[in-house]
Amino acid sequence: MCDQTFMAATFGPCDSCGKASPLMNIYIKSEAINYCSFCVEMMACQQLQKGETLQSLKKESDSLKKKLEEERGKLNDVELHQVAEKVEVLSSLSIKTRRVLKGHGNKVLCVDWCKDKRRLVSSSQDGKAIVWDAFTLNKEHGVTLPCTWVMACAYAPSGCAVACGGLDNKCSVVPLSLDKNENLAAKKKSVAMHTNYVSGCTFTNSDMQLLTSSGDGTCALWDVESGQLLQSFHGHTADVLSLDLAPSETGNTFVSGGCDMKANVWDMRSGQNIQSFESHESDINCVRYYPSGDAFASASDDATCRFYDLRADREVAVYQKDSVIFGASSVDFSLSGRLLFAGYNDYTINVWDVLKGTRVSILFGHENRVSRVRVSPDGTALCSASWDNTLRIWA
Amino acid sequence: MARDMSDKEILKMELDQLKKEVNTPRSAVSKNCADTIAFVEGLMPNDPLIKGVPDDKNPYKGDKGGCTIT
C-alpha cells in the first residue's frame, strides 16, 4: 500500500490568499510566513514585496481614498449655493442665435476662437478644418486632412496657425497664409505623435509649444519647431478626452479629464499629477478652467456638470436636474464666471448659474448633439458646434 | 500607456498618487467660495452675455442696413 504523503508541516488558512491548504513554512528576513505553495510561487514570479497582492494593494488604496475623503470633508463647512444666497438672482438672458455657419459636410467636432475675437477654426468628421470670420460668415481658409474625425483643433495665440488632430494619432500645425492660391495642406507639419487618437489640443502661451491629450491615456507637451516631446503626463488609466490650460500668464498647470471618470491637475514642468478628483459617475467629456484659475468645471456622460475648487481640493457644486438625462459633452464659462454654458447630447445648451446652482436658460436650435461650446475671448458671444454639420453663434 | 499596464501596476500607480495627495495643503470651502463670489461680482457688470451689449455696438445683433439694388 502506498500512502501519499505531503511534505507539509502545517495545514491551515494561507496568510496571503486565505484559502485553507497545505502551507509552506518559509522565512523571509527572519519572519515566518505561512503561505500556500501557489502564493509562494506568485510572490516569487511577480516580485511582490512580502504581503503585497492585488487584494492588499486594493485594500490600501481604498483606505487611503477614505482618508483623503475625510481630510477633504473636514474643510467642507458650507456649500457654494449657501454662500451665494445673498447674491442677486440673474435677470432673464436675451441670448439668441445670431449666425449659423454652414459649410462642413459632416459632424462638426471641435471649435476654437482666435484671440482677435472674431475668427474661429472648426474641425469636422469630413476631415476638413475651416477658418471662419464670425462677423461676416466668410470662410477664410480650408484645410483638408488625410483622416476623418478631426476631433481636436486649436488656434495659435498669434493667429497665424491652427493645430488639428484626430484619428490619425497625430496633431499637425498648419500655418495660415494670406495667399489664396496656396495649398495649406502642403505646409502642414506633424508635431505630436501618439499611439491612439488625439482627443484635445491647445497651444500654450506661445505658438511654439503644443499640449495634446490622447486616447492612449496620456497627455504630452511638444515643441512645434522640432516636433520633440518635451514632457509626458501619465496617470490616467483610460482614454483622456479633454484638457484645458490654466488661464494665467505665468500659469504652468493644466487639467485633464477622461474615461476613467477622473479629472487630474498637472504641473507642466515636472510632469507630476498635483491633484485628482473622482466624483463623476461616467466618462468626463470636457474640462474647463474658471476665469480666476482657482477652479474648474467638468461635463460628463452622467448628465451632470461639476464645479471643483482647487484650493479647497474638492467638488463644490453639481449642476444637474432630473429632467436632464443626456450626457453633457462640453462646458465653458462666461467672461465673469457667473454663467456656465453646457452642451448636451439632447441637442440643447443649458445655461447654469455657477454660484446658485440653478439653470438660468436653455438654448434650442441645433438639430443634433452639441459637441463643443466656446465663449469668445472678450465674452461677447458663444459659439456651439454640433453633429448637425453647423456651428451657431449666440449673443 | 494605461492599457498596456497590468492591474497590479495600475493599482500601484494609483496608490503612489493617493499617498502624495493626502498631504496636499487645503483651505476651507467657505473662504474659497467667498473669494469666487467676490471675483464674479467684480466682473459681472462687464459681462456682455449677462448685461447685454447695445445693438449698435454688437457686431452680431441687427442688420447693418440692407443692400440697395439698382
What does this structure look like?
The complex is a heterodimer of chains A (395) and B (70). The longest helix of chain A has 21 residues, at 54-74. In chain A, the strands form eight sheets. In chain A, strands 4-31-30-29 form a four-stranded antiparallel beta sheet, with no helix packed on it. Chain A is globular. Chain A contains three helices and 31 strands. By secondary structure, chain A is mainly beta. Chain B has a domain at 25-53. The mean pLDDT of chain B is 80. Chain A: InterPro entries: G-protein_beta_1-5, WD40/YVTN_repeat-like_dom_sf, WD40_G-protein_beta-like, WD40_PAC1, WD40_repeat_CS, WD40_repeat_dom_sf, WD40_rpt. Chain A: Residues 54-81 form a coiled coil. Chain A: WD repeats lie at residues 101-133, 191-232, 233-276, 277-318, 330-362, 363-395.
CATH superfamily of the largest domain in chain A: YVTN repeat-like/Quinoprotein amine dehydrogenase
Label the overall shape of chain A: globular
Q: Which sequence of strands runs across the widest sheet of chain A? A: 4-31-30-29
**Given the structure, what is the number of helices of chain B?**
3
Radius of gyration of chain B: 26 Å
Show the largest interface. Answer: A-B, 73 and 47 residues
Percentage of β-strand residues of chain B: under 5%
User: In which range does the helix fraction of chain A lie?
Assistant: under 10%
The geometry of chain B reads as elongated
How would you state the average pLDDT of chain B, rounded?
Answer: 80
CATH topology of the largest domain in chain A: Methylamine Dehydrogenase, Chain H
Q: Tell how many strands the DSSP assignment of chain B holds.
A: 0
CATH class category label of the largest domain in chain A = Mainly Beta
Oligomer: heterodimer
Q: Tell how many strands the DSSP assignment of chain A holds.
A: 31
* Structural class category of chain A: mainly beta
Mean pLDDT of chain A: 89
**What radius of gyration of chain A results from the CA coordinates?**
26 Å
- Biggest sheet details of chain A: 4 strands, antiparallel
Unreliable stretches of chain B (pLDDT < 50, length at least 5) are none
